[in-house]
Structure formats: C-alpha cells, structure tokens
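Action item from last week, closing it out:
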Amino acid sequence: MSDSLKVATCQFSVEADVARNCDAIVAQIAEAAARGARIAHFPESALSGYAGVDVQGSDHFDWPALRQGLEAVAAAAARHKIWVVVGSAHPLSPGAKPHNSMYVISDEGRVVDRYDKRFCTGSAAPDATLDLCHYTPGDHATVFDVDGVRCGVLICYDYRFPELFRDLKRRGVELLLHSYHNARKDRETFEHGNLWKDIVPAVMMAAAAQNYFWISATNSTTEHSLWPSFFVRPDGLLMAQLNWHEPGVLVSEVRRDSGIWDAPGQWLDRALEGRLHSGELVDDPRSRDRTCY
C-alpha cells in the first residue's frame, strides 16, 4: 500500500470527432505518465462527445469508431503503465438509450469497471428533456483501488446529490474522480449567467471537507467552458486549477501522511451509522423539555 498517489486531472476541447478526441486523450495519457501520475482522469464524454451538445443525439454516435477509440486508449494505458478514467457513451441493446459512462482502465490496459451516470438531467419519460432524451441512467457505485488508494467515480449532475458522496465515503473512498461537461455555452451565458464557475468548485470543496476526500474535477475546455479543471484537498482547499479554455494536465499528489486536518474525522464513523451527535448524551428532564427556559 502506497502513502502517496499522483493524479493527472486532464482537460481538452471535447468535440464530436472521435478520432480527434482520441488523439488528445492518448497524448495527455503520455504526458501524465511522463510526469509520474498513476491515474489520468478525463472529462465526461471525453471520447464520444456529449449527446445533445457536441453530438446531435445519441442515435448519431459512431459505435465502431468509439470501440476503436477505446481500444486505442486502453493500449496507451498499457504502454505507459498508467490507470485511465475516461468518459464516453456506452451502447446498450438495440432500442435502449446508451449510458453516459466513465470507463476505468487499468495500467495493464484492461477495462476493469465502468461507472454509468446515475442522475441524468431532465424530466422523466414520456416527455424526457436534456440528458434523459439521450441517455439511460445507471444504478451502481464504482469503486476501485490503485496502489492501495480507494478511488470512486461520479459524473457531473451527480454532484447535486450528497447522498452519493456519503455512500462513497462508506465504501472507503479516499480519492473522488468527478468528471463534468459544462462547456459549449453561448457567450451571454458565459459572461453574464455563469453561476457554475462558483457553484461547482464550492460544492466540490464542501464535499471534500465533509467526507475527507481528495477530489479531481475535470471539465471540457470547449468554448465557452464554464470553469477550468481543478484539484481539491480533503480539508476543502482548492489546491490548483488549470487555465480556462486551454488544454492541460494538472498533476496533484494524494498523500496519506499529509497532516491535513480531518475536521469531522473523530465523529464521522458514528455519523455514517446514524448517530448524529458527538460526545455522550445525558438523561436529563431539562434536556428532554425543549420548551423550557
């Protein structure tokens, strides 16, 4: 078991062109490995492009090209001996909408697991909107170990549901890889309606501090991207951030011996068990009477 793990938070402009996306992913895998990273983490839909945004709809995905691209990414992972967590659409049986997924690829080049976005945006059928027009939600958590560090995966809108963070904490997750696609927005939204540049980092910082996670949050850089990729310490401090609208690889180090203060740590296990107080309770009538002075 290692006391440290280097993580590469990778960003580039995600497009509808699978071959172009694949080339960008493979190049950043090589850079991440050369800089000593053990995991290269990519945005939501990094390989396939995002249905309804980059790609017209899920019926426009080029599945043979995506299979070939995923095989190329897996080969790069094996060649550079690095784990890769990469976003793409995942096909289901004929007649079913695909999953919006993150493939977990080992440093031997094998797909060892897949996370399927559970909270897809939009309204329910038969009047589905947004994500639910194009994707089928997933139903499981994805947790895996790299050099003894327990990692978990979430996608974009999942961040609005703290129950998912708590569930991953119960599963022993130390590093959360959270992928987004908050990009290809119009200039008006970017300049005057961009709440996400504040909300997403704030939620990630709070989730880190409440659960004592390290968090890699990565996003597409396609203009206009609503925020650049970043990395958060388990006390909630945003450690570093990439440049807006520029491809880049941010390498950060997860350290078990960092000495970073674990504010909820003394009481977190009992809180996860439903014991929502610290210390010892007292059997006292003046405690039970909540209307007295």
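Closing note: The chain is about 30% helix and 25% strand.
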